[in-house]
Amino acid sequence: KLFFTDYGNAAKVERCDMDGMNRTWIVDSKIEQPMALALDLINKYVYWVDIYLDSVEVVDYQGRKRHTVIKGRQIRHLRGLAVFENYLYTTNSDNLSILRINRYNGTDVQSLARLDNAKEIRVYQKRTQTAVRSHACEVDPSGMPGGCSHICLLSSNYKARTCRCRTGFILGSDGRSCK
């Protein structure tokens, strides 16, 4: 799944399949300007920062179990967001710091470091990566991902895929070749 935020005409947090199908709103009320978004892949939770409401909130992948992690002036100007173990890590564009917030109760907010112009943050650690099983976009014997000549996108599950073409090309009638 692909998770993303939008605050155009109606602010929301959404999800869809990697090929863009099955687009679903998971949060569409009491939300103003969702910016940064982070996933807890193990427990299947979506965290986001609302820069207008000065809040960090969370829901499960279906949009249930919503609650506010932290709200208020101490978290104004947050940008990036990452989840690791018991904490959320975020960048603050006002004082150029990296913050650590207890994601279960919003307490224990600590400034860890100062970085000029930090707008995003990522945690790279083996435990944050899910095990990869065989999937529909694996490279075939002729070296094409999922048998697609250009781009292979996972569909509704890891066994299904959709082929797409780079800009300027059209997908052929076989659903795999680009011309």
From TrEMBL:
Which molecular function terms from Gene Ontology are attached?
Wnt receptor activity; Wnt-protein binding
One annotated Gene Ontology cellular component of this protein: plasma membrane
| InterPro entries, sorted | 6-blade_b-propeller_TolB-like (IPR011042), Cueball_EGF_LRP_Nidogen (IPR050778), LDLR_classB_rpt (IPR000033)
Offer one example of a GO biological process linked to this entry.
canonical Wnt signaling pathway
* SUPFAM superfamilies, per database record: EGF/Laminin, YWTD domain
The residue spans of each LDL-receptor class B repeat are 1-43, 44-87
Name the UniProt record assigns to this protein? LRP1B protein
Query: Encoded by which gene?
Result: Lrp1b_0
